[in-house]
Each structure stands twice: as C-alpha cells, then as structure tokens.
Amino acid sequence: MNLGLTIANLRKAKSFKQGSLAEMCDITQAYLSQIESNKKEPNLAILKIISEKLDVPLPVIFFLSIDKDDVPDKKKASFDMLQPMVKAFVKEVYDTVS
After folding, report:
1. In 27-60, which positions are buried (b, 16+ CB within 10 angstroms) versus exposed (e)?
2. How far apart are CA 12 and CA 16, in angstroms?
3. Quick one: pLDDT band at residue 91, thresholds 50, 70, 90?
4. What domains lie within the chain, and their CATH numbers?
5. Which of 22, 26, 34, 90 could join 39 in a cystine, given CB atoms 3.0 to 4.6 angstroms apart?
6. How far out from the chain centre does Cα 58 lie?
7. pLDDT of 3-46, one tens digit each?
8. Inter-CA distances, 28 with 15, 24, 41, 63, Å
C-alpha cells in the first residue's frame, strides 16, 4: 500500500503546495513530508482531515493506495483489469490525478 504517494499525487492534483496542505490540516510540513514519503504512518484522525482538505473520501484514498503487491496472487488479474477503470472513474468524479 502506498498511502504517502497517493496523498502526494492528490495534493498535487489539487495544486496545493505541501506547506499549504499541512497548514490546512494543522500539522507541520515536515510531518506531511514524512507521510508522503511513507516514513510516518498517520493516525486515522489525521487521515480524515487530509481527506477532507483534499475533498476526496478516505475510502477512495485507501483504494487508490492499493498496490498490486497487496492483492492475493489469484486476484491480481482482476485487479489489473479493474484498477485502471476505477482510477479513471475516481479521477472524473473527484477531479484528481493518481
């Protein structure tokens, strides 16, 4: 799961600078940087705030964070087929790039 990269991509898609999003979330830029580089794992309360400020539901962020390595081998073909369609749908609905 690559939660940090997903948050960074969503932030950039919204044209937020890292410092701006951190300020909106009442966290430090350093902490947000560590989240985005997967060095720190934020708690659920921080993730909810980030998702609200990015205007993307938290379950969508979790879905976008799923890597192929997170999927059981017998489901990888289905994941490969569905993931691009779901990401395109999310991009259209939430005006994001991921």
Report:
1. beeeebbbbbeeeeebeeebbebbbebbebeeeb
2. 6
3. confident
4. 3-94 (1.10.260.40)
5. 34
6. 8
7. 999 999 999 989 999 999 999 999 999 999 999 999 999 999 99
8. 18, 10, 14, 25
Among candidate residues 20, 15, 10, 1, the one with its CA nearest the CA of residue 63: 1
Tokens of 84: 């691009």
80 contact partners, CB below 8 Å, separation of at least 6: 68
| Burial (CB count <10 Å: 0-12, 13-18, 19+), residue 7 | buried
Crossing angle (nearest 10°) for helices 3-13 and 29-36: 120
List the structure tokens of 7: 């948050």
Three-state DSSP state, 75:
helix
The whole-model pTM stands at: 0.86
pLDDT at 86 over 90: no
